[in-house]
Amino acid sequence: MGSLTHLLLSVTVALGAVELISGYSFQNCIEVPFSRGKSFNCIRRKSKIMKDLIDGLPETAINLTITVNPVWQVPKNSFVKLPNLQNLRLDQNKLRAIEQFAFQKLNHLKSLNMSVNNISELNSSVFQDLHNLTFLFLTNNRLKQIPEGIFSNVLNLRTLTLRQNVLMNFSGIAESVSHLKHLTMLDLCFNNLTSLHSNASLPKSLTTLYICRNNLLTLGCKHSFLRFIQVLDFSYNSRLPAKAFQDVDLSRINYLRLRSSVKILEFLNISNVPVNHVDFSGTSLNNDTLLMELCRLLKKAKWIKDLNLDSNGIRNQTFDILRYCPEITRALNLSRNNLKSLGCLKFLMWQTHIKGITAEHNHFTSLPSCRKKGYFKDLEDLSYRYNRILSVNSHAFFHTPNLKLLKLNINTIAFLDRKALKGLKKLETLRLDNNLLTDLYNNTFEDLFNLQTLNLRNNRIAVIFNGTFLNLGNLTILDLGGNKITHIQPSGLEGLKSLSKFYLDGNNFKQIDTTLHSVFQDTLTTLDLQRNQICFLKEDVSYSPFMNLSRLSDLKLDGQQPYGLNILPRNLFRGLHSLKSLYLTNNEIPDLSPDVFDDLTGLKFLTLDNCCLGVAHLKPGVFKNLRNLTKLVLENMRMQNFSEEVFRNLTQLSQLQLNHNAIQSITLDALDSLHKLSYLDMRGSSLSCTCKNTLLQNWTVNNTKVQVVYLYNLTCPHDPKQKFYNFHTNVCYIDLGEYLFLSTALVIFLFTLIPVLYVKLYWRMKYSYYVFRSWFSERWRRLREEEENCKYDAFVSYNSSDEQWIMDQLLPNLEGKGSSFKLCLHHRDFEPGRYIVDNIVSAVYGSRKTICVVSKNFLRSEWCSLEIQLASYRLFDELRDVLLLVFLEPISERQLSSYHRMRKVMLKKTYLQWPGPDCIDPTQAQELFWNQLRRAIGTGSRLETEENYMSKGHATESNETEHCETYTSDENFYLLP
């Protein structure tokens, strides 16, 4: 690991400190996405030691959940490194022992949950540092007693839950909480308390006390012991006599539950509890006599909000059963009785202002017709759930015209009369789910003008007929999931002009009918088509079925039966620019077209888990337009690689799940392209523990920006006992510090030297290269033959733009008019099929002279430059007078300044200037030009030095008369030094 770190540091220095995206992980916890290091979940881990579970968590942690683990002990100082914790869950573990200083230094902790464990005892000082603890949950443990003084330092405690233990001593509990001035709720249900006897008083702040399902035989408490309690639950204490309440002050009770405990009527006669605040569920009021007696007692209150008669065993009802009761202003609950019918609610004819009736879990088999309207104009909520209703007759709710909520779900309704819902013009929510309905008709919902939510899930509907929802103009939620719908008739969805959420999952659709969406194309936001039979047989579809759904934000297409979507057409999602979530889970799609998601520019969530057949089908560019995507799920796709070309455009991606794939390696370039990545899950992948993953290993272990989920549990495929995070990388690297320094220095030196050499020696090296090639191919010997064996008298180097002058002037004057020179011209004499460079080298060395016809175009030609360079090397290196310069046009000194080799030639040799038309006598000047050129070609090629040249009497100036007015006194018009 040290060598790897050294290597990375050296590379960083050498390459300019390139910053990569970073990663981190925790041994047994997962940071909750977007929590910024504040919330962590340690769930279903195998560790039995608390320290191993939370090791490495940062001090910034505020919320910590440790559940469903085999950990059995919380040792002292377990959380000292997490001093900022405010919410700690330790429920559903195997905890047996909590040591004395287990929660030391958790001064900011507000909520502690240790429910569903095996804790049998607590140390009296275990909570001493929890000064800000507000909620404490110890449900479902084995506590037998509460130690004295255990809550002495927990002065801010407001909620204490001790239900489902084996507590027997209420006095000790009361004494422990008596000083808690902020305690408002105490839950002691499901214990073994036999009385409430206590020498200590309950705190005045305590307003809610639950003592249900104990073994209370008596209360045994003082008159004022419960005087501040407002919510009191004594239910299921069957051995508690009513007289136990005779001397107890319950005057401030707002809710009292006595279910299956005392005889209720006897209790009301001897207690001072406000009778209208008592819950009468489960109090055995099962006949008319008892109910009328109850009403007589309730008359004392003059009014009552809610009357709960749940679970009383009432079998029948009479019309005057509640005649003697005071006005019920809110709700009546008749659930869990043995009622077979409520008729048309005539027994409530004296309760005309009641707003809600709940009659669930009874034995209703049908709802009769109630044609007389106007009895219950104030009734708004009616629930008949969990009954045995088979049929709903016409006008069944005509007597409740102002209903807003009607629950008929979870019955066995097979027949719903066409006019069963007649008159419900103010209904807003209708629940008909989980029944046996097969048909809906065009007048079933004709009066439900204000309906906003219609739930028909899990019935047996096969067809939606024309006009079924024609009058539901205000409907926003329609749930038809879990039926057997195969098709919808052309106007079956007419009228749903406000529909926002449409659920069609779990039906038998084989295709998506584009014509059905037109009515709500501007309002629909959610479309659920999961678990249908939709499939596509070709990659191109003529028209996207979602094209006009401009506001659709949530689309579910996952789990198509039996074999998935088969093909995902490239324009299937055309026009869905507002889509935020797309679900394609569990579809066997063999290929994803690179442009299939192109229109989903607003997409934020995409799940493809268990969807595709392999990574070969994730082509480069498939996610190129998903720049707003924040979460991508690619679980179990059998992916084998992770490439930058596929994922580099996901610049906003924060969560990436790659679980259970066959990815063997991941390059840092691919991860570096995901700039916002903060959560990476690779559990179950096949990352190889080889040298190609050494950089990835270092990235996952040493960096701190991206959470790699359960990194320390990722194993090597070849050895499950070896972990990915620490597999040996020594064989991949040697100690390269010194070598990297030397190589870096060498690279810098070469980068500095090469440009200099390029400027100074470019043509020399190029010449040497071509000469070497000629020599290597055994041409060198032929090119170095003596002059008398040369094939040509002169090789003419010129630019193609000057070819007209060559043909009109040069050839006639050197090869014609009695001249015997033989010239080499590239367009005429170069060997076809041979490399151009080889032809040039052969021409230069196969000619006694090289004539360079220089013009501005000549200077810009690379081939002309090569030809003059080769000739100049013969001039300077071989000391052969082979180079003749002919200037076709005047060229300024500034234009020649960059041609160093040519300037050097001009300083050593004379050159010829073609007389221009502005000369005094062009004819005579041109004749002199040709004479001098012929003489220069005819001279020998052995170069003489400047001293020898001068010693033989040669002059650089001519005695010829000047004919061109632009020539200076020391320059000849045809021979210029």
Summarize the structure in words.
- The chain has 977 residues and is an alpha/beta fold.
- The strands form seven sheets. It has an 18-stranded parallel β-sheet.
- Helix 1 (2-15) crosses helix 9.
- The protein is elongated.
CATH superfamily of the domain at 792-951: Toll/interleukin-1 receptor homology (TIR) domain
Report the CATH topology name of the domain at 792-951.
Rossmann fold
Largest sheet: 18 strands, parallel
Strand content: 5-15%
Shape: elongated
What's the total number of strands? 44
In whole angstroms, how far apart are the ends?
73 Å
Spell out the key features of this protein:
disordered N terminus; 18-stranded parallel sheet; Rossmann fold; 18 helices; alpha/beta; disordered C terminus; 977 residues; Leucine-rich repeat, LRR (right-handed beta-alpha superhelix); 12-stranded mixed sheet; elongated; 44 strands
What is this structure's SSE topology?
Blueprint: H1 2-15, E1 23-24, E2 30-31, E3 39-43, H2 50-54, E4 63-67, E5 73-74, E6 87-89, E7 97-98, E8 111-113, E9 135-137, E10 159-161, H3 170-177, E11 185-187, E12 208-210, E13 231-233, E14 255-257, H4 264-270, E15 278-279, H5 288-298, E16 303-308, E17 327-333, E18 356-358, E19 366-367, E20 381-383, E21 391-392, E22 405-407, E23 415-416, E24 429-431, E25 453-455, E26 463-464, E27 477-479, E28 487-488, E29 501-503, E30 526-528, E31 554-556, E32 581-583, E33 605-607, E34 631-633, H6 644-647, E35 655-657, H7 668-672, E36 679-681, H8 694-702, E37 706-708, E38 715-716, E39 719-723, H9 737-776, H10 780-783, E40 792-797, H11 803-814, E41 823-824, H12 826-829, H13 836-845, E42 847-854, H14 856-859, H15 862-876, E43 883-887, H16 900-908, E44 912-913, H17 922-938, H18 946-951
Parallel strand pairs: 1-37, 3-4, 4-6, 5-7, 6-8, 8-9, 9-10, 10-11, 11-12, 12-13, 13-14, 14-15, 16-17, 17-18, 18-20, 19-21, 20-22, 21-23, 22-24, 24-25, 25-27, 26-28, 27-29, 29-30, 30-31, 31-32, 32-33, 33-34, 34-35, 35-36, 36-37, 40-41, 40-42, 42-43, 43-44
Antiparallel strand pairs: 2-3, 38-39
Helix pairs in contact: 1-9
